[in-house]
Design brief:
The protein has a five-stranded antiparallel β-sheet, with helices on both faces. A four-stranded antiparallel β-sheet has the order 9-10-8-11, covered by helices on one side. It is elongated, with a radius of gyration of 22 Å. By secondary structure, it is α+β, with helices and mostly antiparallel strands. About 5% of the residues have low confidence. Helix 2 packs parallel to helix 3 and helix 4 runs antiparallel to helix 5. Helices cover 30% and strands 35% of the residues.
Length: 218
């Protein structure tokens, strides 16, 4: 279980006449994060930088994550933003910091503090909700054992997403991750191993997880 935003949030930080406006959005994909970025560029067309990071999934084991310094010195913006999201446990979250330069250079340390602090304060005022991690499995069973499969799917809070009937029954099931092993064990015992359960295909993780800057928007 992890937490995510239940609604967008924002915070405006001023540091030596520079403005750092942090916008937080709940997202579940890279595409959604970049859509918010495009909207902010239209809303604040005269800003100097649009630095961002996103983290999709459980912060402890993210599905994907990336960051972008957008012209700030390397490591002073995007990476600190992502670090705060990770440390604060903000799953399925995108943070975009719009910066207006005030004429006074902050130095690398000052930039790291300003970007990180703007995100942290925005997180302080955000409204949160809990997310239960889920996984999708494929259950392949006989028609005779299908009632047993459906009984345990319901028992372990699962949902049948897709069902296919041919020589055997194939059920695509989404359920809380913590129950996957219990479901496998229960079905194996009940059907004497006749039911086969396998993981659904999962896309490869983003190679930018935690450490690699994303350069596509610069």
């Amino acid at each position: 279980m992890y937490q995510t935003l239940s609604a967008p949030a924002s915070y405006r930080l001023e540091e030596k006449r520079s403005e750092f406006i942090c916008h937080l959005f709940p997202v579940n994909s890279r595409e959604a994060a970049l859509e918010y970025l495009a909207k902010l560029k239209l809303e604040f067309p005269d800003a100097r930088h649009y630095c961002w990071a996103y983290l999709i999934g459980d912060p402890k084991q993210p599905k994907t994550a990336a960051f972008n310094d957008d012209g700030e010195p390397a490591g002073t913006a995007g990476k600190p933003i992502l670090h705060v999201l990770t440390q604060r446990g903000a799953g399925d979250c995108c943070a975009i910091v719009v910066r207006y330069f005030g004429g006074i250079k902050l130095g690398a340390g000052g930039l790291v503090r300003a970007y990180g602090q703007s995100v942290s304060r925005a997180l302080d005022i955000a409204i949160w909700q809990e997310v239960i991690p889920k996984r999708t499995v494929i259950i392949i069973t006989s028609y005779e054992d299908e009632p047993h499969a459906r009984h345990f799917i319901m028992h372990f809070e699962g949902e049948v997403l897709v069902q296919r009937y041919s020589e055997r029954v194939e059920l695509s099931v989404e359920l809380p991750s913590k129950y996957v092993t219990l479901l496998k064990d229960a079905l194996t015992e009940k059907t004497g191993g006749r039911c086969r359960i396998q993981e659904a295909n999962i896309k490869n993780q983003d190679p930018n997880i935690n450490t690699t800057p994303d350069e596509t928007s610069q």
